[in-house]
Amino acid sequence: MPFENIIFQVDAGIATITFNRPKALNALNQALLTELSRALDEVAGDESIRVLILTGAGEKAFVAGADIGELATFSTLQAKHFSQAGHAILAKLQDLPIAVMAAVNGFALGGGSEIALACDFIYAADTARFGLPEINLGLIPGFGGTQRLPRLVGANRAKELIFTGKMLTAAEAERVGLVNKVVPAADLMGEVLKTAKDIAAKGRVALRAVKQAINQGLNVDLVSGCRIEVDAFAIALASPDAKEGTAAFLEKRKAVFKGSLKD
Ligand code: CO8
Asked: Considering 134, 174, 229, 244, which one is annotated as catalytic?
């Protein structure tokens, strides 16, 4: 079935999902979330994909949050289902064994910020704005914002942002560690693709192992996290890519990683 609310493209190992409801500033309705979930399944099932980029259509927004018109019609049970579905999709996004970058090209508000927070890291246009303004609607974040934001920027900064519902500029978001890099809007996709291509050329097994070690390690104490790293290191070292990488170094040539899982 074709996508109507997102654009899904794959080119040379790099997949891009573009949220595509520009008239509603790419707000998340149930149809969009269902399509996002399907696209993530396609990404997970395609071994040629090494990097996923998420961005928004139009010049104004990445995603301006959940669709408020739709939200306003929900019963309590529908709200719970919508929030649970959002959590499941963002867990799927976070657990993808490849690099996931958010290219935030404008407003990333509410559920939009929460999607960006579930990515591995964020590059932003200088025109981007970040915020969790749910409190202005009498609501609270419902797609992981109360959990992922404090882990990234600290509880004090997260509370100020969520209690006030205020927006951060791209420069402020970079200063608090929410965003890795801010560039002029016209250069955003070029910068994102440059880093995506760099990562796509690395060994697949190593990338998967290191991402799992970091993500799982963040949920446990340091000693347990270091044990996770020991296992992940051993798995990476056993991969054909590690044989190629070490041989290439010793032979003074550039490594060519194939990402295969057996010799
Ligand atoms: N939902 C629906 N439509 C939206 C949304 C949205 N979140 N944001 C913008 N739009 C629509 C506007 O209604 C408008 O439509 P129309 O042209 O038909 O009137 C169009 O997009 C353009 O928007 P504006 O005219 O408002 O553009 P401005 O440049 O004046 O303002 C803003 C841009 C500041 C981004 C403003 O649109 C705004 O404040 N939007 C709402 C942002 C917001 O509050 N987001 C949080 C939503 S709640 C949420 O995300 C909860 C997530 C977890 C849910 C869990 C559920 C149980």
From this structure: 134
